[in-house]
Each structure stands twice: as structure tokens, then as C-alpha cells.
Design goal:
The complex is a heterodimer of chains A (264) and B (328). By secondary structure, chain A is mainly α. Helix content of chain A is 67%, strand content 3%. Chain A folds into two domains: 144 residues, no CATH class; 73 residues, no CATH class. Chain A has a two-stranded antiparallel sheet. Chain A is flat. The N terminus of chain A is likely disordered. With 328 residues, chain B is an alpha/beta fold. Chain B has two domains: 232 residues, 3-Layer(aba) Sandwich (Rossmann fold); 53 residues, no CATH class. In chain B, the strands form two sheets. Chain B has a six-stranded mixed sheet with strand order 7-8-9-4-10-11, with helices on both faces. In chain B, strand 8, helix 8 and strand 9 form a beta-alpha-beta unit. In chain B, helix 5 packs across helix 7 and helix 14 crosses helix 15. Chain B is globular and about 70 Å long. The chains are: A mainly alpha (264), B alpha/beta (328).
Chain lengths: 264, 328
């Protein structure tokens, strides 16, 4: 048994316009896209939005396969939604299987819903595919900052995300080591029933927790030793910059989305 | 003496690549041919990333070679019908910082994990735990029901080593058993490793960074660099190739360096001094002869000290006996 080598945050490095945009621009535009997707109704609007997403995917030079991979977890939901719409919506009869009556309206609404969800997933995963996790959390922190007034711990949330992302590879490596050490002592993680397999995880989980707590403790001390005291007055090595490119892309996208919403 | 001829672990053109088939692929081993014989204490040295740890993980089938073969007791362990569990019982592997693997509530329960996994009976397990704890100098009665997490660093490490010994391996492979320990702890653990080999008849493979340690305890060295074996032989022969060793990021024991310098200055000293004791043996007479030396008497006393050390390194026990006798 092997610990899978996971690519965290599915970020695909690149140098396209989309990669270079400020993370805040990308997050907000994705949000605008989501809003547009849920307000439009006409097929023409959908077509326009689909064209926009397709253009974004192509310009990012991220392999289309990677973008579509985000759809895999919701494939079942997509199919289910389509089938429910097809047979449950009232309207003109299309065909009948057994006692299930498919309708023209059902087909239309089902298809549009599938397109809507597909575009939604594609647009949002394009953001994480073109933004490195660290930059992404940075952008998120800055966006959440105004909410501090109402008590949202923006900096703390972002710091938690950053630390979690930083330690995932470390803990995977640690898991691999501990597994090997226990296998050297005759541990068997692959055979036996569910209960036995769950039990066989104890020799991995206990040392893993012990080491995670030890690391957390060390990290806390190291951060304090460098005078970390939360986000107040903190400066950054890499400043986020909302540049001319961001302004142009944001303006163009907003205009396009507005057009897509009003078109009939 | 022990039979030194039988090969217990052998690799044939062994090669291994991490993350094979991905853009991150990195060849860690290639064309490695080593043989470990029964009853010897072999040390594998090499700088970080030279492939030492990858190599020893092949010895008990934790990694499967991409090229070549790994044979344990003459049998290819990846051929059909070979039980990996049996291989892992025969070749005990102690990882670096083995105390990180502890997980049970009591010392006894933790040490018995391996023998239980290997399917021993309750009686056998208890006997194995007692024996393993005795070998690493842990007191069974006072420690068995303590939590391993409450012990000192040195004791934790001993518990972890006992946890591998308890399954009754024939070969014991230790990856830097003294890493992160204080000088006294190092000395104790190394002495236990030497005892495992000397008194208990284990075949021992020791991975180490310390040239001093391997010079003192190992009968044979395997030097690795960039995933392959570059040198092999008894310490005094290997350490003759001072420049090569320095070139691959290693070195020679400090005393070897010292004697080398002195030879360069024209002093008639032997070339193959690798341990402190050997160095004292040749240097004390030399210093005693110098004009402002402290005379003959002191030199002789140090001479006895040499005998003691040599007894340890070659494990004859005789020299040590006589020295102890004199002390009493």
C-alpha cells in the first residue's frame, strides 16, 4: 500500500493572463459569473456564458482535461437532476417509458440546469487551477478584511488555510514513514475485514497525531520567536497588486455578463 | 568462529526510481551490487541523498526494485510464493528516529506488536519481549507497564529497537540509530549495537554519518554516492582513499586526518590508523620521544588504554578483561 502523492490545490503553474491576474479579481469575477448563471433564463444567455468560460479555459492554457476533472465528483448529481427534470416536469409529452412521461419542457429545463452546473464548476475550478494556494488565501484574506468589523477573523482564517496547506505534504511524508516502520514490524494494512482494517490504522494514527501535535507546538514557538502576533500591522513580502490588466479584464467581463443577463 | 561465508542479503544490479513515470521521477539507485554475509557488522556510509535509506528499504521488501533483484537467504523476495512478512521478520529494519513509531499504551504492548503480528503465541510473545528488553538494557519488571510516551528519549529509542528485535530477526538493519542523541546516549546505543553483533550473533547493517563510529565498530564499509556503491572494504582500506571520500562529501576519521598530516611532515607512522585507540598506540610513543614530552611512564599507562579500546573495536574481550583486572 502506498500513500498517494497528491497535488495540493490542483494548481497548474503557468504564465497566461489568467495566471497573472490578481486573485481578488479572479475570485470576484467567478462570483459574478455564479450570480449571472443563476439569474439568466434564455438559451442565448447560456450560450454567451458558455462562450466566456470556453474562452477563459482556452486562454489559460490549462489542459481541458484538468478543468473537466472538477466535474467528476458531481457527475451523479448532474445525471440525477437531468433525469428528474425530464420526467417530473409537466408539459407536452415527448415519450413515455412504463409510467414515466418525459416532456419537452423537462428536457429543456433539465439540459439548461446541467449546463448551468457544469459552467459553475468549470468557472470556479478555473480560479483554483490558475491561482497558487498561497496567493489564493492571500486574496481571500484581503477580500474578507472589511468583514472584520462584524467579527469575521479574516487573518486567522487565512493563516489557518495557509498552515494547513503547508503541512499536508509534510504529514503525508510522515504517514508514509510511519506506515513503513509498522510494516517492518509485520503490520498488514491490506487484508482482513472492515473492522480489522480500521483497527490496523491505530498504529499509524497514534504516532501521526503525536507528531502533528509536536509539530504544531514547535511551529507555535517558532512563530512567537519571530514576533508573530496576528495580522495587525503585518507587511507582506509579496504584495497583491490590482493592475491595469485586472481593471480591463474585470470591466470587460462585467459588461459581457450584463449583456448575457439582459439578452433574450 | 562464525561462518562468514554465507550470504544473507544480496542485491543484483538493483535500481530504483522514485515517482516513476511522472515528471518528478528521480533515480535513487542504479546498478547496486552488495552482499551482506552472516555474522558480520557492515556499515553503509554516504552523504544525505546518496541512496542509503532507499537501499535498506529494499532489504526487507518495503520497496520493490525497478531493476535487478534483491535476494534474502538466496531467494529473490519478489518471486512468487515468497512471504514478505517472513522476509520482514528475518530482516529487522529499525528506521531513523524509531521512537516515532511507538503507539501502544504500555511498553510491553508496543514491543509485542511485531511478534504478535508475526503470529507468535502468547507465551512466545512474552518471552520475546523479555529477551528483547534484556538485550537493549531495559528492565522488564519496572518498565513493562509504563507508557512509552513517558520515557526518556534514550529509553524510547531502546523500546523501539526492542520492538523490532522481539520478532527474532536474523539480520538487523539500523538507519542512524544514534541520530539526535547526546554523546552518552550515542555511546550506549552503539555499544548495544556492537553487543548485538558480538554477544548475540546478529548480522548487523548500520547506516551512519559518523566516520568515527563506523571505523570503530564496522568490519566492512559500503560507501555510496549518487545512488550507487563507489567503494567497499574494511575501514582501514576504505579510509586510505581520503581524497575520494572528501570528494563525495564524506571524510575520514579525525585521527586518520591527523596521522595523515603527521606523515606528511615526515613522521614514520602507519597509513591505516582509523580509531582513536590505534592513533594513541602510534602517537604516544612518538610524543614520548619528543624533548618536552612527559616521559616514559605516562606513555605506558596510555598504552594500556589503547589495549582496552582495541579490545572493544575488535571485540575480543581479552584486552578489556586485563585492563579491568588492573583497575580492580
Amino acid at each position: 500500500m502506498k500513500v498517494p502523492s497528491v497535488v495540493i490545490g490542483q494548481y497548474i503553474p503557468g504564465d497566461s493572463l489568467l495566471h497573472r491576474l490578481d486573485p481578488r479579481t479572479k475570485i470576484l469575477l467567478a462570483l459574478a459569473m455564479v450570480v449571472a448563471l443563476f439569474t439568466v433564463e434564455s438559451p442565448w444567455s447560456y450560450l454567451m456564458l458558455a462562450v466566456l468560460v470556453a474562452a477563459a479555459v482556452l486562454s489559460s492554457r490549462v489542459p481541458v482535461k484538468m478543468v473537466l476533472r472538477g466535474l467528476r465528483p458531481i457527475a451523479f448529481i448532474l445525471i440525477l437532476t437531468f433525469v428528474l427534470h425530464l420526467f417530473m416536469d409537466p408539459g407536452e409529452e415527448l415519450f413515455t417509458i412504463w409510467r414515466l412521461r418525459a416532456t419537452h419542457e423537462g428536457l429543456r429545463i433539465g439540459l439548461l440546469t446541467v449546463v448551468r452546473l457544469t459552467l459553475l464548476i468549470m468557472a470556479t475550478s478555473l480560479v483554483t487551477l490558475t491561482t497558487s494556494p498561497i496567493v489564493f488565501t492571500d486574496g481571500l484574506e484581503r477580500l474578507l478584511n472589511p468583514l472584520r468589523i462584524v467579527g469575521v477573523p479574516a487573518h486567522e482564517l487565512a493563516m489557518m488555510m495557509t498552515i494547513a496547506l503547508r503541512f499536508i505534504p509534510t504529514l503525508l511524508e510522515e504517514t508514509d514513514k510511519i506506515m513503513k516502520a509498522q510494516m517492518a514490524r509485520g503490520a498488514d494494512f491490506e487484508s482482513g475485514g472492515l473492522v480489522n482494517r480500521a483497527k490496523s490504522m491505530i498504529p499509524i494514527l497514534v504516532p501521526l497525531f503525536v507528531s502533528a501535535f509536536r509539530r504544531a507546538d514547535e511551529l507555535a514557538v517558532a512563530m512567537e520567536a519571530r514576533c508573530y502576533r496576528g495580522g495587525q500591522g503585518r507587511t507582506r513580502l509579496r504584495q497583491l497588486r490590482f493592475g491595469p490588466a485586472d481593471a480591463v479584464v474585470a470591466a470587460a467581463t462585467i459588461v459581457y455578463l450584463a449583456a448575457a443577463v439582459v439578452v433574450r | 568462529m562464525r561462518r562468514l561465508s554465507e550470504v544473507v542479503i544480496e542485491t543484483v544490479d538493483l535500481g530504483y526510481t522514485y515517482m516513476k513515470g511522472t515528471p518528478m521521477a528521480r533515480q535513487a539507485l542504479h546498478g547496486v551490487n552488495v552482499a551482506i554475509r552472516r555474522g558480520e557488522l557492515v556499515a553503509i556510509i554516504g552523504r544525505t541523498g546518496s541512496g542509503k535509506s532507499t537501499l535498506i528499504q529494499h532489504f526487507n521488501g518495503l520497496l520493490r526494485p525497478d531493476e535487478g533483484q534483491i535476494k534474502v537467504m538466496g531467494q529473490d523476495i519478489w518471486s512468487k510464493g515468497v512471504s514478505l512478512r517472513d522476509v520482514r521478520r528475518r530482516v529487522g529494519l529499525v528506521f531513523q528516529y524509531p521512537e516515532h513509531q511507538l503507539f501502544e499504551e504500555t511498553v510491553e504492548a508496543d514491543i509485542s506488536f511485531a511478534p504478535r503480528s508475526m503470529g507468535m503465541t502468547q507465551v512466545q510473545v512474552e518471552e520475546a519481549v523479555r529477551e528483547a528488553m534484556r538485550i537493549v538494557n531495559l528492565d522488564y519488571d519496572s518498565l513493562r507497564s509504563r507508557s512509552p510516551f513517558d520515557l526518556s528519549g534514550g529509553q524510547k529509542r531502546r523500546v523501539a529497537i526492542a520492538g523490532v528485535l522481539a520478532m527474532g530477526p536474523e539480520v538487523l538493519v539500523l538507519d542512524e540509530p544514534t541520530a539526535g542523541m547526546d554523546p552518552r546516549g550515542r555511546e550506549e546505543v552503539l555499544q548495544e549495537v556492537a553487543d548485538l553483533h558480538e554477544k548475540h550473533g546478529y548480522t548487523v547493517v548500520l547506516v551512519s554519518h559518523s566516520m568515527e563510529d563506523v571505523a570503530r565498530y564496522a568490519q566492512r564499509l559500503i560507501v555510496m554516492d549518487r545512488g550507487t556503491v563507489v567503494m567497499e572494504g574494511p575501514p582501514h582500506e576504505v579510509f586510505r582513499h581520503r581524497d575520494t571520500l572528501i570528494g563525495i562529501g564524506l571524510g575520514v576519521p579525525q585521527v586518520t586526518d591527523l596521522v595523515h598530516e603527521l606523515r606528511g611532515m615526515g613522521h614514520p607512522l602507519p597509513e591505516d590508523v582509523v580509531t582513536l585507540e590505534q592513533a594513541m598506540e602510534v602517537l604516544v610513543p612518538l610524543l614520548a620521544g619528543w624533548p618536552n614530552g612527559h616521559g616514559q611512564g605516562k606513555g605506558q599507562r596510555h598504552g594500556h588504554g589503547c589495549g582496552h579500546g582495541e579490545g572493544q573495536s575488535q571485540g575480543q574481550g581479552q584486552a578489556q578483561g586485563s585492563w579491568d583486572g588492573e583497575r580492580v
